[in-house]
Specification:
single chain, 384 residues, alpha/beta, Rossmann fold, Rna Polymerase Sigma Factor, Chain: A, 2 domains, eight-stranded mixed sheet, two-stranded antiparallel sheet, 14 strands, globular
Length: 384
């Protein structure tokens, strides 16, 4: 491998904090468009081994970012990551053993080039002139990042939800560059119901008068439309049983109905709060592009050659990407002769379980990575 302790992050023993890298040369997209300049925001955690054998790429879900584990933010303040129970010292994805890379996806609004970035040809923000993306385009950008970091082969690519789609796409398009794949709460393709939810969310954004054809100023984005889109999406992330237990029909701050069109049930207030929070940190155009990329995703494993090992996880109460869809991934992989492990994790948390069920899920992922390390060492000994 080209990676060594002299590579850009060789010897780094802690979280890197936010980093940015401009890819070398243009990036051609699946749809045919070419981005002449792409900047990728990423973070690293842990120490890259001298032979580069311990690198793990973690891919985030729709609204995530590069900050997967505890570390410094742009102001130098230490803050938790979005997968804080899974990635860190002594955790299942153990940053005392593995060198973890996490990048904000292409098309994002949290540091990587996307519709809110400036088009170098015009000096104006891209807006809806930004080309439509695919999950495969996101993976291509991450592979170019790995090239820049001097990492030829990954021990694993790990992701949940849209991150799991990226992990599967990595296995199909770059099987020679990864030894193992973890796809949690994910799917090979969205069904009609999931596409329908995405379309309703996009329609709410497009219908907001503040959208202005995607040309809104950053501080004047379509807040109402984006908040509604998030509320719709958030419902799909929860389970009926979990919502019943958490909210029931309880009223908030009152003993009787208001007989007005106001938020009076606890679940209404909760969704409104989630919408308001989301608007403060995410961009409406990026939401359009991310959901469309998920709609386009239609995965098949590579037809031949050496396949990575796979761990596919589903969760009992996830009705957005249910266990039946995870089993379909497994079926396709077995038909290709792949080494596949599968588990359905008991959880009341719906689709969000991949973020919350760190103990059960972590035991499975931790053991899978351990096994991948052992097999990798065995393969290298036999080759030498």
């Amino acid at each position: 491998m080209a990676a060594s302790t002299d590579a850009p992050h060789g010897g780094l023993a802690a979280a890197s904090g936010p980093l940015r890298l401009t890819l070398d040369g243009p990036l051609r997209l699946v749809g045919g468009a070419i981005l002449e300049s792409v900047e990728v925001a990423y973070e690293t955690f842990g120490t890259l081994a001298g032979d580069g054998s311990n690198a793990v790429l973690v891919c985030h879900a729709l609204s995530g970012d590069a900050h997967v584990a505890t570390g410094p933010d742009a102001e130098g303040r230490v803050r938790p990551g979005w997968w804080n129970g899974m990635v860190g010292p002594g955790l299942p994805i153990d940053t005392t053993r593995y060198f973890v890379i996490c990048a904000n996806v292409l098309g994002g609004c949290l540091g990587t080039t996307g519709p809110g970035s400036f088009d170098p040809a015009t000096g104006q923000r891209w807006g809806l002139r930004f080309p439509l993306l695919t999950i495969e385009d996101m993976v291509d950008a991450q592979v170019r990042l790995l090239d820049a970091l001097g990492i030829d082969t990954l021990l694993a690519v790990v992701g949940g939800s849209m991150g799991g789609m990226q992990a599967l796409a990595f296995a199909s398009h770059y099987p020679q560059r990864v030894r193992s794949i973890v796809a949690a709460a994910s799917t090979a393709r969205l069904g009609a119901q999931s596409i329908a939810f995405n379309e309703v969310g996009r329609a709410a954004i497009l219908a907001d008068p503040a959208f202005q054809g995607g040309g809104y100023a950053p501080d004047e984005q379509p807040r109402d439309g984006l908040a509604i889109a998030r509320m719709i999406g958030h419902i799909t992330y929860l389970s009926e049983g979990g919502m019943r237990e958490k909210f029931g029909r309880r009223l908030r701050d009152r003993e009787d109905h208001a007989f007005e069109f106001v938020s009076e049930f606890e679940v209404e207030s909760y969704l409104a709060h989630q919408g308001r929070k989301f608007v403060e940190r995410f961009d409406a155009n990026t939401y359009l592009y991310m959901t469309k990329a998920m709609d386009y995703f239609d995965w098949a494993p590579p037809a031949s050659g050496d396949l990575p090992r796979f761990l596919v996880l589903s969760f009992t109460s996830d009705w957005l990407f249910p266990t039946a869809q995870a089993r379909e991934i497994v079926r396709q992989l077995l038909a290709r002769g792949a080494d596949v492990s599968f588990a359905e994790v008991e959880s009341p948390y719906g689709h969000d379980a991949f973020l919350l069920e760190c103990e059960q899920q972590g035991a499975l992922i931790g053991a899978f990575l351990e096994r991948s390390c052992a097999l990798s060492r065995l393969t290298e000994r036999r080759a030498s």
